[in-house]
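Researcher: Next entry in the queue.
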Amino acid sequence: MIKHIIEVSQEPSRLSLRNNQLVVTQSGIEKSQIPCEDIGVIVVDQPQTVYTHQLLCHLSSTNAVVVLCDQNHLPTSILLPLSDHSTLVPRLQLQISMSAPRRKKLWADIVKEKLKRQAENLPDEYPAKQKILDLAKNVKTGDPTNREAQGAKVYWQNWLWQQEFRRDRDATGINSILNYGYAIIRAALARSVVAAGLQPSLGLMHRNRSNAFCLVDDLIEPYRPMVDFQVRELYRQGYTELSPECKKQLLGLLAIPMKLGKETGPSGVMFQRYVNSLVRCMEGTERRLGIPKPCL
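Model: Structure for this entry, 296 residues:
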């Protein structure tokens, strides 16, 4: 089942709980009611939105994620549910005790897949496409020669094909649209990481004392090209700034079906299988990380 992705952005709203359902009230009038168990992500981009404590607690119990946006309309905070107590401690111990060689092997799997998907975003006749594929073939354990960064340089120089583009996460325009798309996927992956009992701050390769989502930022890498593809399509349609319509289109990324082997399913389900594969790799019962591929 595809979980609902809800955006609150147009009007000041009051979000409350009644009969295990999210109730959205605007200007004193109830606009909608949605069962909390059917909600995957709520994105709030209306600064006058108010919530009840009861609602937030119940959303956590149904494993829903609440994403809060700042004055620039970019996600700035994520409210995540705590994992079930029976898995939290064993999984934390598993993460802490994971050997460096296994950690590096997992990172290599992620980098290879990211490079392949970046190459798929470029036309066949572009030399850059083959160059990135060649980089993917030569990724060593732990990526000591930083093939990921080399690939990124080539990729962004050719991403808009005949147009010049510089990737800058602090810039506006197309860069802000990319940032929003990445943040939405990051929130969905964070939900799956926590649901699996993993500690999102303990990454494979990302290390940052101020980042509580290092593991999520590792796992998101193969899905950045999926966002890039969608943002480029929006740009071709004339969208050059982050607008309500842009955000609506990007939220649709969470409804894209994904495939892993012979199995196909909605992103929420497949992200969970991705994280479960990571757990099995940590345990040593699976040798290669299973990374679902979007069916674009």
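Model: The chain is about 45% helix and 15% strand.
Researcher: Noted, moving on.
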